[in-house]
Write a structure and sequence with these properties.
The chain has about 200 residues and is of the alpha+beta class. The chain has three helices and seven strands; from the N terminus they run E-E-H-H-H-E-E-E-E-E. Helix content is about 15%, strand content about 30%.
Amino acid sequence: MTKRRAYLLAAAVLGVLVVRWQAPGESATPSVGGTGPSSSEAREKADPAVADWLVQARVRSAKASATVATAEDAAGGCDGIKDGKWGFHTALEKDGAWWQVDLGKVHPLTRVVVYNRCDTAPRTAWIELLLSNDAKTWTKAYRHDGKCFYGFTDGKPLIISLSNAQARFVRLKNSPGEYFHLDEVEVYGAVPRSRCVWPR
């Protein structure tokens, strides 16, 4: 008997994702201080989720003065940490700020699950999901209906069903004139039938 199952494409387990939420080239090198590698720097390199958590903690602190690179901050959108806070945060964009993930190749997608930043959840009431195979031509796959959603605090993230839409790039775009910040984004794809036989 053959059964189709979904598998997680975009999450901390991959560790090789290319993520962006602003125009390419808009980045700055964060200043971490110190003169040589420390044990915390070694830990950051060994575990991308720990590295991202430390970046977020540094930026959220009142003493934060470092500028964080675009890709470094955007990685928080798929680091596996769900706490209702922001995993990434954009500047105010008049055309609509966005975050995207490159899945490496075209996949059949079954759903995207979005966990919101819970203290300012209404900002993403009209969020859009765009799909692309080349990061140039985009298809709008979903637009939210204006209702507030959370995820971590109520256990009810936004679940967008895709029915095996094909895409390599998955982009979430916010309404024009709003800041954009989410807690976590999970992208699921269909396992090919030949690879998933159940039961054995």
